[in-house]
Amino acid sequence: MILPGATLGLLGGGQLGRMFTAVARTRGYEVLVLDPVPASPAAQFASEHLCASYDDEAAIEQLGRRCAAVTIEFENVPAGALERLAAHCEVRPGAAAVAVCQARIEEKGFLQSSGFATARHAPVRTADDLDRALDHVGTPALMKISRLGYDGKGQAPVNDRAGAAAAFAALGGGPCIIEQRIDLATEVSVVLARGADGAVVPFPVGENTHRNGILDTTVVPAQVPAALAEQATRMACDIAAALDYVGVLAVEFFVDRDGRLLVNELAPRPHNSGHYTLDACLVSQFEQQLRALCGLPLGEPELVRSAVMVNILGDLWQGGEPSWEAVLAEPGARLHLYGKRDPRPGRKMGHYTCLADSAGQARDRARRVWQALSRPPAA
Ligand code: ATP
Ligand code: MG
Question: Prior bond to 140 cis, omega within 30?
């Protein structure tokens, strides 16, 4: 076990890393953050910030020498960096699992060969693959870049053959996946932690609503049949085992109109749809990340109260600084801000979580807060 007082490394400096760093430092660990951006959200809480790119060999070497264990908050780190680190210290999750989750082509290939249901899809590595891929998938469909997409970026709708060629070109002509567009009944996700001993602890299932391809709200417990929630939980645990995964893993699912669960994508780290755990569960996804990283027993994921998490995007700053009093005055509401200085539209700046005795009451609170927050400031 790696105990308090030890130094841990984190690749990536965004809000997920900030929340991990806050928990780790509160528990008495030192945290070195490697991230290329000065004053990033996680660096603000770090013991020390190594401001360098993820392929800076000297910085990686230093991280490996100084840390007992290293984790990630961002999956797009070069797999080579994780392999180099593994020569010095524990790296959780490991390079092989991260490599699967980094690229949609590999991720979908893994899911399919392991027998997990997904939307119909086909890789498009070059324009020569387009016709065969579209014949297999049909329309309507979505073209998605294989690597580096997030918050719905790097995606384009496809309705016919000409549209597929145009979408492939518009996305840069690099490796893509084309995927059947699902008529969604809803979306759910499972965040879980898996220890090096194979113990797996799933959090309650969250139900997610997206707006413009970006997560907007998560409601917990998910308002879906219990059997569906159980099936999602079982599938997520089986995926973690199949990847021999150590750390926190998120599995996003589509639920189609026939009530079928399809795996959308995997995230090898804590996830936006697991932020509710900070306020609503006995242990948060970030504490589980710390525990799995350090080989400590995993905590209890029990939901203490129903919760609704709402993302706060940069759009909210259009009329100036939002009126935070609105969140702070609402009983059962918890505000989290990520320390980002530049509130661009679509940028995740923070979130709030409303707790209550039922999901319906939590939703009422969340709606009340949202209305007050988005009211233009008094003249
Ligand atoms: P993030 O990493 O932020 O979760 P992303 O950019 O990786 O997002 P996806 O999860 O692939 O993107 O898609 C974002 C959202 O777009 C989905 O949660 C869903 O609402 C919608 N979407 C994506 N693919 C499909 C599909 N095949 N059918 C229907 N809706 C889809
Ligand atoms: Mg997604």
Answer: yes
Task: Confirm if 359 and 305 have CB atoms less than 8 A apart.
Answer: no
Residue (of 132, 107, 102, 131) closest to 119 by Cα position = 107
Name the residue with the closest Cα to ligand 1, atom 26. Answer: 181
Q: Would the CB of 207 count as within 6 Å of ligand 1?
A: no
Residues 254-268 pLDDT 10s: 999 999 999 999 999
Looking at residue 180, its amino acid is Q
Which uninterrupted H or E stretch holds 136?
Answer: helix 130-137
As a whole number, the mean pLDDT across the chain is 96
Q: What does the chain come to in residues?
A: 379
Q: Is the pTM of this model over 0.85?
A: yes
From 76, 264, 272, 348, the mutation candidate for ligand 1 (largest count of ligand atoms within 8 A of CB) is 264
CA of 134 from ligand 1 middle (Å) equals: 19
Please count the other Cβ atoms lying within 10 Å of the Cβ belonging to residue 360. Answer: 12
Find out whether the beta carbon of 213 lies less than 6 Å from any atom of ligand 1: yes
pLDDT tens-digit readout, 85-142: 999 999 999 999 999 999 999 999 999 999 999 999 999 999 999 999 999 999 999 9
Closest C-alpha to 136, from 99, 108, 107: 108
Do residues 63 and 85 touch, judged by C-beta distance below 8 A? yes
Which conformational region is residue 41 in: left (phi greater than 0), alpha (psi within -120 to 50 degrees), or beta? alpha
Q: Tokens standing for 288?
A: 């589980």
- Does residue 265's CB lie within 6 angstroms of at least one atom of ligand 1? yes
Decide if 141 contacts 181 (C-beta within 8 A): yes
How far is Cα 302 from Cα 282, in angstroms, rounded to an integer? 6
Phi, psi of 296 (to 5 degrees): -85, 155
Band of residue 377 on the pLDDT scale cut at 50, 70, 90: low
Distance (angstroms) between ligand 2 centre and the Cα of 21 equals 24
The rounded distance, in Å, linking the Cα atoms of 253 and 260 is: 10
Cα 31 to Cα 61, 161, 265, distances in angstroms: 16, 50, 29
